[in-house]
Amino acid sequence: MTQETLLRQIIDYDNRADPYPLYAELRKTPVRQEGDELFVVSTYWEIKSLLHDPRISSDARNLSPGAAGTLLQEEEASPLPPSFLRLDPPEHDRLRRMTMRPFGPPETPRRIHNMRGELARIVTDLIDGFGDRKQVDIVDDFSYPFPVTVICRLLGVPREDEARFHTWADTIAAGLDPAPGQDAGEQHRVTQQARTELGMYLSGLIDERSGAPGDDMLSELVTQHGPDGQMTRAELLSTASLLLIAGHETTVNLITNGMLTLLRNPEVLGRLREDARLAVPLVEELLRFEPPVQLLPQRTTLADIDIAGTTIPEGASVWLVLASGNRDPQRFPDPDRFDPDRKDIQHLGFGSGIHNCFGAPLARLEAQLALTELTRRLDGPRLVEDPPPYRQNAVLRGPRHLNVAFDGLRS
Hints:
The termini are far apart. Strands 1-2-8-5-3 form a five-stranded mixed sheet, with helices on both faces. It has a three-stranded antiparallel sheet with strand order 4-11-10. Strands 6-7 form a two-stranded antiparallel ribbon. By secondary structure, it is an alpha+beta fold. It is built from 16 helices and twelve strands. It has a single domain, classed as CATH 1.10.630.10. It comes from Streptomyces gelaticus.
């Protein structure tokens, strides 16, 4: 098996349902070179080291011209500046600090904790919405609407506008997963129209919050005057869009992968039904076992870096395969076994270093509540199809549909 065909197989949709044997093959060469300027890193300690290395950049403008093209489709062009996810210090640090102040510690330490009751009500309402049905699509009926509704409440989107927000989010998400045979030009047009409409809506909401701020995150982002100054309108729009897209897409996968894993491990499902406290370690093991973000293909080197016997030259494209590192037997004993009792789960499911997932506390809580209630309330749940159909996206890996049959709803 050549290096190039191995990487292409990992990206190939035919292997989306189970890429883990390919990751095992990949780990035989911890730093694998493909062509002149693409390097794939697949082992735990090497990935972790590079995530903390200041010589690794998240800014695509630092790629050498020969490394700019990749095997993955580039993101849609946007008139907005890059979000802090795509920036390096000091700009990354400034924008992340400003976004963190109204979101979590130390300035707003209880925002996520105080949302727990509202999150639980959203979960209950969605499950109640299953009604008398004996089969649902966990993705369309639960995993997609749940995090979008949460983001709306977090940003302060009026309840009457949430349906419009859902439509934009669904359309933009579909643009990340183009269906086979779909007209690429039409897909691009529809996605760009949704991005434009969302941007115009958010811009109007920013104007409203500037004059009449409320008790929501967008109001605080608009009105804050901290040591880092104030965000520009473009930065506000870019950050709000990031919260919607990044927060939504990863949580959809986390919940859906979690339900699939539980249905494949009925003894664990039974334990969670009897003891909701299991949800905390279970979600951490899930982030290791089936992470919602499989790989990070957007890194580049600011200098030559020697790692695992290989020199990665300055300006090269570096892919960090988080999901492979999470199954590295040099780091985790029996890594292909789902074990919520695992004692040492320093996983890479949320990345690590300065780009460690900004929304991790919220995603954890959403997944804990969602999986606990789905497990408790679905009577006799079982998979209709295994493996289910997966999303096209190789980075954001998760089922596109997860049809589950059950005997009825518990109260």
